[in-house]
Amino acid sequence: MKKSLIALAALSAIAGTAAAQSSVTVYGNVDVNFGNSAGANGVKSSAMGDSGLSTSRIGFKGVEDLGGGLKAEFQLEGKLEATSGKLGTNATTSTFTGTAATAVTVGTTYTPAGTVSSTSTNALFNREAWVGLSSATLGSIRLGTSDITGAQGLDSTVGQAGNFSDASSNLGTDVAKVVRYTTPTFAGFSAQVGYANADATTTTESTAGKLTSVYGQYEAGNLGLYAGQVEKKIDGAYNQKESTYGVKYNFGFAAVGAYRSVRDAATAAKAGTEGKFTQTIYSVSAPVAVLGAGVTAHGVYYKNEYDIATSGDLDGYKLALSKAFSKRTTGYVAFVDQTDKKAGQTTNDAKTYLIGVNHAF
């Protein structure tokens, strides 16, 4: 009896230790706003929207201590549409059927024979769905669905204003079949390399759709420097590239940031009609003590440029005030003024007013 009690106590201690070494966290964000806008071509509308300040989402993440400085990690995260209750988003997978291909574009017919068909399915955890290992001395590796490189988050990282400083979608944002390695941080510097398998499969072009990336950052005190490049294989003759750069600095009384992304045309054939795309963002944020504790003012200027005149450039600015009611809850008001120079629009200037609440949990 005594031995049984001792054995039971030992097992309980082991189980307690194992539980203490692993943890799972449920987290998320709910952001809903009401907006009034007067858009291009004179269209006016009022509507409730999602993700004004920060993207609404829900997720699970966990870590297990494997001993010797090694940890197992996972993350599952999906976009949440709070205004409708929808979780996740539609994801498209492309499949090639045929004998040869010169390009991989959904719906295109090839010579001598072949087509790329697409299947749309609901992806519940469309933002993150990966498992990996991490070590303070060896770095970390993740496998699954994720951004292929840290460069995809640079717009908000240096923007000082959450989604108000977001860029358009970058190459390699929230893609499937990712392998991503991140080095440990040495004197403020860290780097990443990434690879994503092709969505489409072909007989002769098995690597079409493949993405590769490289990224580096330096953070020390109030300064942050960032740069990365993603390359996507379109077909046997063309690779699309996007290079992204960012810098931020916090002066104490105000934080400033600058972002620039340069993306090639999707294919050589589109270079004459679509052209190279460049996006530039400058931002500043500063506490406004006169309006009360937790109030911050944000200003963002952004410009989208094409090297083909017919594509039409776009530029604008965003002004916002946010009020942190607690560590989790923030209210905000914002004004957006945007000029769209695309041909055929009777009114190029669009103005939007927003008021919303963001709650993180």
> How many separate helices?
2
N-to-C span: 48 Å
CATH class: Mainly Beta
Weakly predicted, low-confidence segments: 3-20, 96-118, 200-205
Give the helices and strands as they follow along the chain. Answer: HEEEEEEEEEHEEEEEEEEEEE
Per DSSP E runs of 2 or more residues, the count of β-strands stands at 20
Q: Name the strands of the widest sheet in spatial order.
A: 1-3-4-8-9-10-11-12-13-14-15-16-17-18-19-20
Taking all Cα atoms into account, the compactness measure Rg is: 24 Å
Structural class: mainly beta
Coarse shape: globular
- The proportion of residues forming helix, as a percent range, comes to under 10%
Q: How many domains, as an integer?
A: 1
The whole-number mean of residue pLDDT values reads: 83
Q: Which CATH architecture is right?
A: Beta Barrel
Oligomer: single chain
Write down the CATH topology.
Porin
Outline the biggest β-sheet: 16 strands, antiparallel, barrel
Strand residue content: over 45%
Q: What's the name of the CATH homologous superfamily?
A: Porin
Outline the structure in words.
- With 361 residues, this protein is mainly beta.
- It has a single domain, classed as Beta Barrel (Porin).
- 7% of the residues lie in helices and 57% in strands.
- It contains two helices and 20 strands.
- The strands form two sheets. It has a 16-stranded antiparallel barrel. It has a two-stranded antiparallel ribbon with strand order 6-7.
- Strand 17 and strand 18 form a beta hairpin.
- The radius of gyration is 24 Å and the shape is globular.
- 27% of the residues are buried.
